[in-house]
Amino acid sequence: MPDTGASDAFVAFERVQKSYDGETLVVKDLNLSLPKGEFLTMLGPSGSGKTTCLMMLAGFETATHGEIKLDGVSINNIPPHKRGIGMVFQNYALFPHMTVAENLAFPLEVRKIGKSDREAKVKRALDMVEMGDFGSRRPAQLSGGQQQRIALARALVFEPELVLMDEPLGALDKQLREKMQFEITNLAHSLGITTVYVTHDQTEALTMSDRVAVFNDGRIQQLAPPDELYEAPSNSFVAQFIGENNTLEGTVTQLKGDHCTVQLENGAMIDAKPVNVTEVGQKTRVSIRPERVEVNPELGPDAHTLKAKVLEFVYMGDIFRTRLEVAGNREFVIKTRNRADQERLKPGQEVNIGWLPEDCRALDAD
Ligand SMILES: Nc1ncnc2c1ncn2[C@@H]1O[C@H](COP(=O)(O)OP(=O)(O)O)[C@@H](O)[C@H]1O
Ligand SMILES: [Mg+2]
Questions:
Q1: Residues 338, 341, 343, CA angle at the centre, nearest 5°?
Q2: Which residue, 131, 136, 260, 331, shows the most beta carbons closer than 10 Å to its own?
Q3: Domain match, 217 and 287 both
Q4: Rounded distance, CA 281 to CA 253, Å?
Q5: Which letter, b or e, does each residue of 313-352 get, where b requires 16 or more Cβ atoms within 10 Å of its Cβ?
Q6: pLDDT value for 3
Q7: Which of 208, 236, 264 represents a domain boundary (last residue)?
C-alpha cells in the first residue's frame, strides 16, 4: 500500500481537530508525527488540550476532523483494545477484584503469553516500580502512589510498541518521582518503545523527552528538543512557560537581518535578536534568561549595560538569586553561581547589568 504520510512516522496526527460541544475547538489543526522509538512529551497548562489528544490517540475520543495514523495506517475506526497501546492515565483504575500480580498478568493472558513467561515478565515489571513484594495485595490495600506505580507496570508489562502516559507521576513524592522519571525514559529507550507523555511540569518534560510539544489553547506553540525550547523559544508564551525568564517591554526602532534595536519604556535602548518581530514600530517583549545576565559585566564592546536596583538577594547555596528593578520591571531576576569571589548584593544597591545581544530575544508583545 502506498504511504501518503511522512514515511518514517510511527504516530501521526494529521489536521486533527476536536470539539466536544460542536462549537469550540479544544484541539485546533494538530499536525504532529513521531518516529518509532521517540519519547515525546506534550507539555502545557491545564485545559490546553493535552489529554484530549492522548484520548484520541488511545481511541477513547474521536477526532471531529482529520486523521490519526499508526504505522502509516489510519486508526480512526479501530477500537481502543485493538490498537495495542499501553496506557497510564490519571484515573486509569486497576481491576479491584484482582491482585496486583493478576492485574499485571491480565494484558499478557489476553495476548496468549505462556505461564512461565508471564510470571517472569510480571516479576520484572513489579521490580521495576519497586513493588516486588506487593504481588498478592489488592489495589484497595495500596496507597494512591503505589496504585499508580502498578498502573505504570501494567502498561509496560506486555512491552507495547506505543505507550501513552497522562501525568503518571503526579501523585508520587519528589524522590520517587525523579527515580521513576529516570526509570521510565531508560526503559522506553532500551525497549525501543515510542512514548507520548503528558505533563504540565516543565522540569519533567525537559528531563525526560527527546522532543517536547508545548501546548496552549489547543495548539502546539513549539515542537523542539528540550535545549532548543529553553535556549530558543519561538514566542513569548514558550519563553514564559519554560524555565525562568525576564521580560522587558519596548518598541522596535531598528531592524536589520539578525539584529534589532528596542527602545524600552524608560527610554533605554538595547540590542536584541529579532525572533518574531518583522517591522520597525512594532511592540515587542524581549526575553533574557536569569543566568545570562552579568552584574557589572566585562562582556566586551558589543554588550549592553542597563542600570538596575537590587530589591532582594537570596542565598540558595549553589547559586545566588537576586531580584532587581530594571527599566520599570521589578521582577527582573538574575542567577549567579556561588563562587568565593562573587559579590553578595544588598537591597538598595545600584548596579549595572549586561548580557550578550544574542542572549536577548525580541518576541511577540502578547
Ligand atoms: N469530556 C469532555 N467534555 C467536554 N469538554 C471537555 C471534555 N474533556 C475536556 N474538555 C475540555 O476541553 C479542553 C481541553 O481539556 P484537556 O484535553 O483535558 O486539557 P489538558 O489535559 O491540557 O488539561 C478544556 O477546556 C476542557 O474543559
Ligand atoms: Mg489533562
A1: 75
A2: 260
A3: no
A4: 6
A5: eeeeeebbebbbebbebeebbbbbeeeeeeeebeeeeebe
A6: 42
A7: 236
Quick one: which ligand is closest to 26's CA?
1
Cβ atoms of residues 159 and 187 within 8 Å = no
Is there a single domain that holds both residue 100 and residue 211?
Answer: yes
| Cα(194) to centroid(ligand 2), Å | 20
φ and ψ at 118, to 5 degrees? -60, -50
The reply to whether 1 falls in a domain is no
- In this structure, which ligand is nearest to the CA of 23? 1
Burial class (CB in 10 A: 0-12, 13-18, 19+), 274: buried
- As a whole number, the mean pLDDT across the chain is 91
302 and 177: one domain? Answer: no
Ligand 1: residues within 6 Å at CB? 20, 26, 44, 46-52
Name the closest-CA residue to atom 25, ligand 1. Answer: 47
Q: Residue 339's domain spans which residues?
A: 244-363
Could you tell me if 50 and 80 lie in one domain? yes
Count of structural domains within the chain: 2
The answer as to whether 185 is a domain residue is yes
Residue 353 domain-assigned?
A: yes
Q: At 290, which CATH number?
A: 2.40.50.140
Pocket probe for ligand 1: among 13, 51, 90, the residue whose CB has the most ligand atoms within 8 Å is 51
Three-state DSSP class for 317? coil
pTM over 0.85: yes
pLDDT in tens, 217-267: 999 999 999 999 999 999 999 999 999 999 999 999 999 999 999 999 999
Neighbours of ion ligand 2 (CB under 5 A): 51
Residue 259 sits in the same domain as residue 228: no
Counting ligands in written order, the one closest to the CA of 218 is 1
Q: How far is the centre of ligand 1, averaged over its atoms, from the C-alpha of 339 (Å)?
A: 47
Q: Could you read off the pLDDT of 296-323 as tens digits, one per residue? A: 877 666 666 899 999 999 999 999 999 9
Same domain? For 226 and 263 the reply is no
> Is residue 1 scored above 50 in pLDDT?
no
Q: Model confidence over 107-163: pLDDT tens digits?
A: 899 888 999 999 999 999 998 888 999 999 999 999 877 888 898 899 989 888 999
Mean pLDDT across 163-173: 87
